[in-house]
């Protein structure tokens, strides 16, 4: 439950009367309590001692906290004025470090919040009045929906103008969905009523959490302060499962509920329609009304989504790659436990036609969407509980028996998992040696190594990645790249999440607090950083592929580098290991052949058109408020999608023949239930216009298959490369007889 006061504060004409009582009812005591003082001082000490980037914030930086807190309260810069910012920094800035670090006093936060609350109350009255007026959608106006990088308005008149446009912009969403102006106003009124109620529900601990999290975020984007309530809900936030949808949720700065992670095997995952970075706009219980959740506290959203097993919930989703905020869709989900079998590693054999021999080349593909362990507490009871490395080893053995000539590991939808499993997985493809280095906040370095000298597969290998490949995925791909064991193919880089966080409960670091207070919070702090065997960090830069492919993902704000205050990439001393990255002279022919296909093949022309269309929509920072123009743009987008759908249907007729290779336990489970276990498409690679299209025609996978086929035919010899080593294989001395 991350409190984020919202820029949409909504109510109805009736609420004009209710507003007075709502605001007058709870007389909250907004001041620093004794426990808040202890928590604040303890948090500052934790940041200065435990945080990996402990020296990031100095005394001179503390006035920035005032602006950061204002931006958290008013992320779209619609309530505060620029004069407020100047006044607060002048009044509170010089004393802020002393207040927090030595006195534990956060009255500054409460004082600023009181001004914010007053601005909101005034704006509410204004909004309710404006909703009674006619709205003209024929004028040639425009609005910039994302004001998160804009300054606060300079004057009240400028703020009024912004709000006129904001309201018109929101109403247009309903008009484009063929609703009337009055229906659009009704929607706004209900929205404002809910937002006003949420404002009235704000507790002093919510304000404390927002303020102190603003402080931790000055160190890095993954560090937070948890109030006692949030600490209790932490397990729910981390995995909304069992009787939920199987997703990790969060609240964006603009008040939207965002899908942080889709848990493999959960109902959201198996639906194939919910993806990472999608936004949940509304929730509807079976037989109930649709309730918007924009601006709602995370805890309330979680409570609405959870429910009894086998019951239905309908989510209104705004896809992460939607060109317009009106392009929502409804997803119907049946609540259930995590179905681990549906999330386990899966494999297929693709038969590629060979121009050289006239025959087909069998290439194995193993898709892995997380580095899972063998005993998740929320797995369905019928699931077999193998680790991902055990499952992949079994699939590799089966693929070898089927006579594959090369292997691809597809990590495009793999957001991470257990580091130990990433190490074990790497060990399937190298003899032994270090896989990852971890440096802690004290500068101590620990090396995690593969100590098993057996090699499950020593043939030609490629790893397919995307911007969604994160954390443990980056360790696996980066280590194989360090060893020269695989050619890495995919988006321009992986996610770049190369840090580790720890949750530290306040009561464990201040005995007095533990004895006298029961409801204390915690700090989630970044305490370690990942480095590859060659000393290069995966943080921020991620893993850069040997062969990059054109991707919509590269034009989305996906990845560590897009986050404010993200830790920088750096290097440490390499650890000793046997291997080296593939020489450029070896990769160059593969790269040139791929680029030639990217310039000549129809499927890449299709992909380029898709990317160009998406880029054009992304670059439209301002949106027209003229209804006719918006209708024309919507029609153009619909027409474009129809053309692209027809094109991909035609291209899909040339798909490579393939067949599935299943784990033994999956085969047994299917025999017992007489129902196939299907691995659904998770959120991830977005190069197709939608998930269903990608299922039909996966351009990145097709090109990766062609690259490994090129490696087999390098210099016309399937066994020898320029250095006497089989292409992208384990070196001769590492092979096992």
Structure description:
- The N terminus and C terminus are likely disordered.
- It is built from 23 helices and 20 strands.
- 44% of the residues are buried.
- The longest helix is centred in the last third of the chain and has 25 residues.
- The protein is α+β, with helices and mostly antiparallel strands.
- Strands 18-15-14-11-10-9-20 form a seven-stranded mixed beta sheet, sandwiched between helices. Strands 3, 4, 5, 6, 7 and 8 form a six-stranded antiparallel beta sheet that branches. Strands 2, 12, 13, 16 and 17 form a five-stranded antiparallel beta sheet that branches.
- 39% of the residues lie in helices and 15% in strands.
- The radius of gyration is 27 Å and the shape is globular.
